[in-house]
Write a structure and sequence with these properties.
With about 400 residues, the chain is of the alpha/beta class. It folds into two domains: about 5-285, Acetylglutamate kinase-like (Carbamate kinase); about 290-385, Archaeosine Trna-guanine Transglycosylase, Chain: A, domain 4 (Roll). It has helices at about 10-20, 30, 40-55, 65-75, 85-110, 120-125, 130-145, 165-175, 215-220, 230-245, 260-265, 280-290, 300-310, 350-355, 365-370, and strands at about 20-25, 30-35, 35, 60-65, 115-120, 145-150, 180-185, 190, 205, 205-210, 250, 270, 295-300, 320, 330-335, 340-345, 380-385. The strands form four sheets. An eight-stranded mixed sheet has the order 5-6-4-1-7-11-12-10, sandwiched between helices. Helix 3 packs across helix 5 (about 85-110). The chain is globular, with a radius of gyration of 22 Å. Keywords: Amino-acid biosynthesis, ATP-binding, Cytoplasm, Kinase, Nucleotide-binding, Proline biosynthesis, Transferase.
């Protein structure tokens, strides 16, 4: 892959021609209009995806649109009130899910394709047994040449355990199904050097070779108001994909027949190249399937040792502990400037770590007793540059 980076167009052709399994995420800004779910878009998508499927590709769809479909359905319901509360949004989503799936099912049926609805929560990813069960179910569906259509199970997901946006969900599905390509259909025409809504002179980026070096927050002015997370969440999802060695194609789903054109190698959107060295599936699962329970701040020496020398985190480098967490919990590691170094599984509970931070390893036993871990976080249980 590294030799091909000198000619990214050739790299793109190689990716598109060899891809056998793709995750396609369809955003709410693509699927909906002021009137609700746009059935013309659903049918055009089915047309293009069916063509990819006929060519032998395995396709997994991560879709938005349930809330929009639900809101359209309750317009004539005298007793329904679309309020800005969690129970109301979950009720609207429950009404819309079946309608959204019906439209997909009918659209694909016209092309002789069978679809399957898969509703997931963050809990399905956090629990290893449920994760493996979902993985086996999806693999069976793909073996049967069925097209899985995935959405968050908003009806039962509590606020603290929501993915937040379907970009995050889609990036986790990549690992779940061992995808080889991530296509993110959005309202934007790709990634720009700056927010084009604020600076019309912003230039499009046809390729991002090293997304880990990209100033995502600076480019996007933080999160934007389009969809749940805007371009900010799409770039974070692409960064997670890159860590799995999965390339991402960010394309405007509002462009007529965008998928067909993208796979015909028309120059459109932004290609995000995968990292040259991927992280292990275990570390990816560890870092992204749970929310960090707390934060550990480290000094400059420790941050350098972690980033440049691949060392484990020792108590001597810890300067501050925030939050309450138990032994084995996932925590965020911050440097002395407050920048994220990575995430990892702590060998110590927060109350114990507060008692030994700053101490040399040989002094830990004096405070907590013998037989304890020499590392606060072992490097095998740590992912640097986590896209959180």
């Amino acid at each position: 892959m590294s030799d091909s980076r000198n000619d990214w167009r050739e790299t793109k052709r190689l990716i598109l021609s060899t891809c056998k399994r793709v995750v396609i995420k369809v955003g709410s800004a693509v699927l909906t209009s002021e009137a609700g779910l746009d059935l013309r878009v659903v049918n055009r998508l089915a047309d293009q995806i069916a063509e990819l499927h006929d060519a032998g590709m395995e396709v997994v769809i991560v879709t938005s649109g349930a809330v929009a479909a639900g809101r359209r359905a309750i317009i004539h319901c005298r007793d329904c009130r679309d309020e800005d509360s969690l129970p109301s949004r979950q009720a609207v989503s429950a009404i819309g899910q079946s309608r959204l799936m019906r439209e997909y099912d009918e659209a694909f049926f016209r092309y002789g394709k069978t679809t399957a609805q898969v509703l997931l929560t963050r809990g399905d990813f956090e629990d290893r047994a449920r994760f493996l069960n979902a993985r086996n179910t999806l693999r069976t569906l793909l073996d049967w040449r069925v097209i899985p259509i995935i959405n968050e199970n908003d009806t039962v997901a509590v606020a603290e355990l929501k993915f937040g946006d379907n970009d995050t969900l889609a990036s986790l599905v990549l690992s779940l199904v061992d995808a080889q390509l991530f296509v993110n259909l959005t309202s934007a025409k790709g990634v720009f050097t700056e927010n084009p809504d604020k600076n019309p002179a912003a230039k499009p980026l046809p390729v991002i070779e090293n997304i880990a070096e990209l100033d995502v927050e600076g480019m996007c002015d933080g999160k934007t108001c389009v969809g749940s997370g805007g371009m900010y969440s799409k770039l974070l999802a692409a960064r997670r994909a890159a860590q799995l060695a999965v390339p991402t194609l960010i394309v405007s789903g509002l462009t007529p027949f965008a998928l067909k054109k993208a796979f015909e190698d028309v120059d459109m959107g932004t290609l995000v190249l995968p990292a040259e060295h991927s992280v292990s599936r275990r570390k990816f699962w560890m870092a992204y399937h749970k929310q960090p329970c707390g934060q550990i701040w480290v000094d400059q020496g420790a941050a350098t040792a972690l980033r440049l020398r691949g060392k484990s985190l020792l108590a001597a480098g810890v300067t501050r502990v925030e939050g309450e967490f138990a032994e084995g919990c996932l925590v965020r590691i911050l440097d002395f400037q407050g920048q994220t170094v990575g995430v990892g599984l702590s060998n110590y509970a927060s109350k114990d770590l507060q008692g030994i931070m700053g101490l040399k390893t040989e002094d830990i036993a004096r405070v907590l007793g013998p037989g304890l871990y020499p590392e606060v976080i072992h490097r095998d249980n740590m992912l640097l540059d986590a896209a959180l």
